[in-house]
Amino acid sequence: MNATATVSQNWPVIQQGLIQFYYATKERTIEIIKSPITNPDMLWLLIPLIASLILLEFYFGRYSEEELGWNTAFGNSLALIFISVILAKHMYDYQLIYDVNKISIVASVLLIGIILALLDFYHALPKQFAFKLSAKLPIDYLAFVAIVFVFTNIPANGVTLAAFLAILIMLVIIIGIIHRLAPKFRNWVLPEPPEPTKESDLINKPQSPI
């Protein structure tokens, strides 16, 4: 019996499993999104992350010709380290230091932050690749995942992984919309940014008579 025949024979079971996985992923996604409501302490970390992410995306939507910069990439990596330390303190305060899963997540995020900080500090990677790794979205999203796992009891399984992937896709779509709206918003509300003035232009500019 070939693979096609096997799939055709078992398709009703596969279809039922996919439907169940879809609804489980949908429920888990809603649970993750609503987790700050049931765990208000999360908001002290999530609100600065979300606000800074949205504002910076508006900024780069307005000034699309600008790039991240090594200093900003390094700062983003340090932010990931600081968030890991805050999460470790939360685990210590609430006696969660014996939870192997939570400890592993915080330690992994801390290690990633340290590695990224060292790579950015020494300019060890090609600029375009390093800036993508240390951009605001991947850093904040990784911090968001760690915050959710530390503050909640959501299990780390395939359904949760699919839910986080769905949230990431939604974030990418929202950021894409922000990038498209930022220039229009600029034209509606804000004036065009002035062209940089060269020092030579100021020197050669004729002075008006008094």
According to DSSP, the number of beta strands is 0
Sequence of secondary-structure elements: HHHHHHHH
Radius of gyration: 23 Å
Average pLDDT reading: 85
Helix content: over 70%
Q: Based on CA inertia axes, which overall geometry fits?
A: globular
Report the sheet with the most strands, covering strand number, pairing sense and barrel closure.
none
Q: Give the structural class.
A: mainly alpha
Distance between the termini: 97 Å
Please report the number of helical segments: 8
Tally of structural domains: 1
As a percent range, the share of strand residues is under 5%
Could you list the spans in which at least 5 consecutive residues all have pLDDT below 50?
Answer: none
Short description:
By secondary structure, the chain is mostly helical. The chain is built from eight helices and no strands. Helix 2 packs antiparallel against helix 6 and helix 3 runs antiparallel to helix 4.
